[in-house]
Amino acid sequence: MACLDRIRNTYGRCPVWNCDKHPAKDGDFQSEMDISSSTDTAPEIDEEEEIAPWKRNGIMHGSGFQLVSPCKAARPTTMEMDTTPVETTNKFSQLDEGNAPITPPRKIPEINLKVTANVNQTLKEICQQFPHTENRLQKDFIRIRADSEDSRGKIIKFLKEKNLEFVLSEAFEDRPLKVVIRDLPREMDKQEIQQCLEEAGFKIERITQMKNFREKCLHPLFLTDVKKIGNYANIYNFKELCYYRIKVEPYRKRKKATIHFDC
Q: What range does the domain containing 219 cover?
């Protein structure tokens, strides 16, 4: 019997739970009763304390889906409510009641009076008759600016009666448009150029051929003064003149000092 018990022990305990025919012996295996009693007397685990709330559902159901911490979870999306439109008003609508274009006020041209010995007495009489007159000194001339066109005409009449020397400045609106016509022959007649431009609808005040004073020769450049009448700015789109292909450019005034080369 001892021999049979050793052979049985080599095979292990019976797979049947609490089997009466094959009980465990010799202390090799723990009794099933002990195991069952130990499991029955073991303290119950407080699932609320040991298992985090965000893990409870995944552990209880035994699903393979793994929940993440709330700090790593995506934020819940909220539906944006339609905001009510903000009503706005134009504070400058009163300026547009008449729908008329606003034109800037016309600047009154100045009168350039030459400085003389008794010029202060002349300015005194002008300021007494026209108290809103403004006088400024510029080089050898005094720039007299009147407050209205009527006062300007009266000041001019007063200076003529005194036989004083003065020069009238032109208003910006009355000044001609200066352009340069390129790619014409040097020998081209200026009268022919003016005639062709007037036939195209432009009012020409004068045409001057530009000159190189150092070499004392003429340039193939013609400085043209166009009056600001009608569609005068269309002269920049003029591409053909006197059967020549030309180029019209704005006049760039030289800012350097004038040099006399005859010395």
A: 177-250
- What is the CATH number for 209? 3.30.70.330
Q: Same structural domain for residues 186 and 238?
A: yes
Tokens of 106: 């016309």
Which strand (E) or helix (H) includes residue 205? strand 204-212
In a domain, 23, yes or no: no
**Do 127 and 188 share a domain, yes or no?**
no
How many whole angstroms separate alpha carbon 61 and alpha carbon 46? 17
Specify whether the CB–CB gap between 166 and 111 falls below 8 A.
yes
pTM of the model: 0.47
pLDDT of the chain, 263 residues: tens digit per residue: 677 777 766 766 666 666 666 665 554 444 444 544 444 444 444 444 455 555 555 444 555 667 777 777 777 777 666 677 788 888 777 666 555 556 667 788 899 999 988 899 999 999 999 998 999 998 889 999 998 889 999 999 999 999 999 998 887 777 889 999 999 998 999 999 999 999 998 999 999 999 888 888 889 999 999 998 888 889 999 899 888 999 999 988 776 655 555 55
Of the candidates 124, 144, 168, which is a domain's last residue?
A: 168
Q: What are the DSSP calls for 99-149, one per residue? A: -PPPPPPPPPPPEEEEP-TTHHHHHHHHHHH-TT-EEEEETTEEEEE-SSH
Query: What's the domain count of the chain?
Result: 2
Give a yes or no: residue 148 inside a domain. yes
